[in-house]
Amino acid sequence: MKKDNLYLFTLLAISVIVFIIGYLSMAYMVKASTNQFLEIQIESSKREAREFAELVASQLESGIDREIVVQYIQRSIEGTNIETGFVCMFDWSGVEICHPDPQKIGKQTNPDESYVRPIDSEINSEDFYDLLTNKKQQGGIRDFSNESRSSEVIYLYPVRNSDWIIAAHANIEKIEKQINHLKFNFLLVYLLASASIVLLSLLTVRFLGSYYEKTLELKNEKLAEEVINLSKLNSNLNQYKSEISRRIEDESEKQDEVDNTVRIKNRLLTYSKDKLISIRVDEIAFITTEHSLTSISCLDGQKYSSNSSLDELYSSLDPMLFFRANRQCIISVKGIDEIFKYGNNQLKIKLNQDFDNAIIISKNRVADFKKWLNM
Q: What are the C-alpha distances in Å from 44 to residues 130, 238, 280?
């Protein structure tokens, strides 16, 4: 996949996730904030209606004539700004007694003007929200169907020892405008926040992607260099095998001195069970030791034993043909099949004969091994 496609799909995935989660969160926050706002509106209207009802009741209880009380109440509420919300008073038959609009006094409450809840069942913010959004009627003394009315009676409170009822109205249009303004603000914040998150996420992905791409490129370059070196090493191995084969053929009966005191052997005396066997050195694939027992494996798959230690055998073998891989193994150049990179600056030797344990050239011996193969 190309980088541009990767960034595009990353952008789309992040955008979808952010916008879905953001939208659900925004819807929840809008409803929670709206309910809180409506709860405040309801509590304010309830408090106003209760206080008004208690005031009227106290005036009646103090012996003030009902007509005078009505006049006082009418003067106090007349001209009230009905754009924000107001209180009125009517009797149990629905005839308006006091109202901010004097023209409505004495008239029966118009079924198309108000929405009334039962006195013993108060409206809550959930009901109010349904009323605003769905125009759902919630039941009460009267149920009305006019959805275009500008106010709703959201709370009723009776005046003690009278047939009067105080009604708290709420301006539906204004509340709807405030709620819509609240939704718009949430939507704006949601879009800006989502766009910012997507943009920052994309920039972060690109930054991290670029960083890891550079790191990967460096690793690839290093790996390519190691592959080239490994290829050279295996190539040198094949050339070295050919060179050794030619040298053995040309000098099959000649012996060279290693340290001017010990002569290189062309044959080793071994045994298999009770039989002594002399084998040619150039037929050996590798020599190992385990529990002080020395085992010699030949190119044809035959295995023999020796009474000599690895140190003794290695000192008498041709250093051009054999290499001391570690303390447990001597390998012949003819016995090596392939060379692999292993771990941190180490090499792994694959022999052309089955061997249970992997032969690892430690990083301290890698330089000598490469030198042995003329690298």
A: 19, 96, 110
- 228: buried, middle or exposed (CB in 10 Å: 19+, 13-18, 0-12)? exposed
State pTM to two decimals. 0.42
Give the C-alpha separation, 116 to 176, whole Å: 19
CB–CB of 285/297 below 8 Å?
yes
Q: What integer pLDDT is reported at residue 324 of this predicted model?
A: 92
Q: Do domains 3-191 and 249-372 have the same CATH topology?
A: no
**Terminal alpha carbon distance of the chain:** 39
- Residue 253 backbone phi and psi in degrees, to 5: -115, 10
Residues 311-328: pLDDT tens digits?
888 988 888 889 999 888
Q: Which CATH class is domain 249-372?
A: mainly beta
For the chain, percent of residues with pLDDT exceeding 70: 79
Residues 327-336, mean pLDDT to the nearest whole number:
89
Give the position of tokens 């060279």.
256
CA distance 36 to 369: 80
Q: Which CATH class is domain 3-191?
A: alpha beta
CA atoms in the 13 A half-sphere facing the CB of 273: 2
| SS3 label, residue 297 | strand
- Going from N- to C-terminal start, the domains of the chain cover 3-191, 249-372
Q: What is the DSSP letter of 343?
A: T
Check: CB of residue 182 under 8 Å from CB of residue 34.
yes
Cα–Cα separations (whole angstroms), residue 275 to 12, 91, 169, 304, 305: 78, 130, 119, 10, 10
Bridge partners, 171 (sequence order):
151
Q: Cα(189)–Cα(213) distance, rounded to whole angstroms?
A: 35
